[in-house]
Structure formats: C-alpha cells, structure tokens
C-alpha cells in the first residue's frame, strides 16, 4: 500500500511517499481502508521529534515507526480474532495516539481504542477530524470536573482542541468565554456558533482582563498562557489547566501539587492527561450525531499535498483541523 513515511525527524521535507507492506489485523484489531485523515499537532510533533518526549513514543535516535498520521475515517476491511463490535463494510473514525499509521491507504487499530462508527449524516472527511481535538478537549473536562452552571474560559479557542473544547463545555452546560488571538478570516461568528457566550479577540486589541474574573476554570489550549497570567481570572478554588507543558514544564510541576492546593480551596493547576478508549469515542460520536459537536475544518488537501498540509499546521494558525483526502480507487 502507499503510505507517507519519514525515516528521520525533520520538517515537512522529511516526508516521502513509499510502498509499504499491507497491515494485517492482530487479535482485537480492525483493518481500516482510510478515506480521510488529518494533519494535527500530534502528527507534527511525531514528524519533527519535538518536544523530545515524542521520541520516547516514536523511537530514538531515528523513528522506529515510519508511517505518520494519527486521525482517520474510513471503512473496515477486515477484523482480527475476537472482534465482535465491527464487521467489514462498517464506516469508522478514530485516533491512534502513540502508534501512528493513518497517513496511509490502510491501518490497523484496536477495536476497543478511540474508534467509533461514523455518524450516519457525515461523510469520512467530516468525521475524520472528530477524535484528536475531541479527546484532548475531553481530558480538560475530566480533570477539572467543570459542569452544568460553571463558568470556563478557553484560551486558544480557534484551534483543534479549542474548537472542540468550546463545544464540549457548551454541551455540558458550562458558560464559555472564548479567547482567540485572531477571529478566523471570513468566519466572524464561528466561536458564538460553537457555543461561546462571550468572545475576547486579543488580535483586535482586547486584553485578557476584559474577560472579567471569577471563572471556575481557565483552560489553555495554546501553551501561550501560564498559571500566573490565569490567576486573576479565577475564583478562589478555581483551576487552571493547559494542554501544553509550559515553560520549563512548569504546568506539570504545578499540577503535581494541584490536588493538595485544590483540597485547601486555593487556585490550583491540573494537567489534562488524555486517556480514553471506546467509551469516549462513542460519547464523541453521539455528540456529533446529535449535532452538539461538529469538528471545524480549516482546509482540505489531497494526499499528494501532505507536505503542504504539514507546513500549514506547523505555522500554528490553523482554525480547527486540516483534512487530507486519501484516494480510494
Ligand atoms: N497534551 C497533549 O497531548 C497535546 C496534544 C496535542 C496538542 N497539544 C498542545 O495543545 C496546543 C493546541 O493544540 P491544537 O491541536 O489545538 O493546535 P492548533 O489547532 O494549531 O491551535 C493552536 C491555537 O493557538 C492559537 N495561537 C497561536 N499563536 C498564538 C499566540 N501567540 N497567542 C495566543 N494564541 C495563539 C491559535 O489561534 P489564533 O490563530 O487565534 O491565535 C490556535 O487557536 C498546542 O500547544 C499543542 O502543543 C498537546
């Protein structure tokens, strides 16, 4: 099968297309014919090997796993021994964290992993971006426990994680203030449409302070904020969480004492370690089927344009997700 591979860590020019052996499903796995995939920040980190922690997953000093890609939608071709949840012909979408392989015509995935049936009204290109941002966003809700009637501020609301987070919070009954660096060109109402009650546009000169104070949680989906910057926005006992480690991995260090400061009723830091399998995938698929979570697509590229897609995502200014169509004929 044809696949996008990289045999060294590097920029988009490290990507090559090659024929590699067709994968076969092990027990508990399904074989998927990929119709659409995405290029996301996880893929960029696996491709470049930065931050260095990614080399623990992908190999040191050279990539152990050569095929790139983590998010996909397509059709089940075959199932491994013991798989009862899926049959050949089923339309599925999912995310393989820590074991790339979706930038290819086929991949194998664990049937009990982040995998779910594609909601009936969506095509693969619409479903493919549903899982990466959604599962990282869900980690924010799980770790902070924000819910019905709470107030949360999302910093970086226009990214893949941010756009998913605004929607998941809104679906959970949380009042959301969305902060972005720039309102997406041609989509002025995007964040309100996703469920934000209030939008703070830093790019137009608004200051973060104008978002007010007293938030139950400040959720940073950019890595550009810090606990120090978030503190004035939080109520006493409120939480700060970031999808990024922060300068000097401070978000991890502060999260180590977060449960203690939380018990003391102080403002505290929590880290949204992502985890979850079929249950979370089913939850996201259900929200998508009910129209309460709609992955936002910025651009769509052809498979041969994959390097361009990576260069665009590297720039850090995408709105939602970048989809890549994989030829099926
Ligand atoms: N914990 C994990 O496992 C994990 C996994 C994936 C990603 N991440 C991290 O999570 C973060 C977001 O990921 P993503 O996939 O959502 O990325 P993304 O789709 O590329 O979004 C990046 C966001 O950052 C905003 N931004 C860029 N420059 C900014 C600046 N100078 N000030 C404020 N905002 C800025 C962008 O919005 P504007 O254009 O409006 O500025 C956009 O909303 C990244 O830092 C990434 O490293 C963590």
Protein architecture, described:
The protein has 329 residues and is an alpha/beta fold. It has 2 domains: 2-130 and 296-325, Medium-chain alcohol dehydrogenases, catalytic domain (Quinone Oxidoreductase, Chain A, domain 1); 133-270, Rossmann fold (3-Layer(aba) Sandwich). The chain contains 11 helices and 15 strands. The chain has helices at residues 41-48, 54-58, 124-127, 132-144, 160-171, 190-194, 227-230, 250-256, 258-263, 278-289, 306-314; strands spanning 2-6, 15-19, 29-39, 71-79, 91-95, 106-110, 114-117, 151-155, 175-180, 198-201, 215-220, 234-242, 268-270, 297-302, 321-325. The longest helix is centred in the middle third of the chain and has 13 residues, at 132-144. The chain is globular. The mean pLDDT is 96. NADP nicotinamide-adenine-dinucleotide phosphate is lined by residues 40-42, 133, 136, 156, 158-162, 180-182, 221-224, 243-244, 274, 316-318.
Largest sheet geometry: 7 strands, mixed
CATH architecture annotation name of the largest domain: Alpha-Beta Complex
**Total count of domains:** 2
- Do you know the CATH topology of the largest domain? Quinone Oxidoreductase, Chain A, domain 1
Average pLDDT, rounded to a whole number, is 96
What form results from the Cα inertia axes? globular
| Bound ligands, named by name, code or SMILES | NADP nicotinamide-adenine-dinucleotide phosphate
Q: Briefly note the structural class of the backbone.
A: alpha/beta
Which stretches are poorly predicted, pLDDT < 50 over at least 5 residues?
none
By CATH, the superfamily of the largest domain comes out as Medium-chain alcohol dehydrogenases, catalytic domain
Q: What pattern of helices and strands is seen along the backbone?
A: EEEHHEEEEHHEHEHEEHEHHEHEHE
Number of strands: 15
What share of the residues lie within helices? 25-40%
**What is the radius of gyration?**
20 Å
What is the class of the largest domain in the CATH system?
Alpha Beta
- Secondary structure tally, helices: 11
């Amino acid at each position: 099968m044809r696949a996008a591979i990289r045999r060294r860590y590097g920029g988009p020019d490290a990507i090559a297309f090659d024929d590699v052996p067709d994968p076969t499903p092990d027990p508990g796995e399904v074989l998927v014919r990929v119709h659409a995939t995405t290029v996301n920040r996880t893929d960029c980190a696996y491709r470049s090997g930065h931050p260095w922690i990614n080399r623990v997953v992908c190999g040191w000093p050279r990539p152990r796993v050569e095929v790139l890609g983590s998010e996909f939608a397509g059709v089940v071709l075959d199932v491994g021994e013991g798989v009862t949840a899926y049959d050949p012909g089923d339309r599925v979408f999912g995310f393989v964290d820590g074991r790339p392989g979706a930038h290819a015509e086929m991949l194998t995935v664990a049937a009990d992993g982040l995998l779910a049936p594609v909601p009936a009204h969506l095509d693969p290109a619409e479903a493919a971006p549903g899982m990466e941002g959604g599962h990282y966003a869900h980690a924010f809700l799980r770790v902070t426990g924000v819910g019905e009637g709470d107030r949360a501020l999302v910093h970086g609301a226009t990214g893949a994680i941010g756009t998913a987070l605004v929607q998941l919070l809104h679906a959970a009954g949380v009042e959301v203030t969305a902060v972005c660096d720039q309102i997406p060109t041609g989509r002025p109402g995007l964040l309100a449409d996703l469920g934000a009650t209030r939008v703070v546009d830093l790019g137009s000169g608004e200051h973060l302070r104008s978002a007010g104070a007293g938030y139950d949680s400040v959720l940073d989906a950019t890595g550009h904020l810090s606990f120090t910057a978030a503190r004035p926005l939080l109520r006493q006992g409120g939480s700060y969480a970031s999808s990024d480690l922060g300068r000097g991995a401070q978000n991890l260090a502060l999260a180590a004492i977060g449960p203690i400061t939380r018990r003391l009723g102080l403002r505290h830091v929590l880290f949204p370690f992502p985890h979850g399998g079929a249950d979370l995938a089913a939850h996201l698929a259900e929200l998508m089927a009910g129209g309460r979570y709609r992955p936002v697509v910025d651009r769509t590229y052809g498979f041969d344009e994959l390097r361009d897609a990576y260069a665009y995502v590297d720039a850090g200014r995408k709105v939602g997700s970048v989809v890549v169509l994989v030829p099926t004929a």
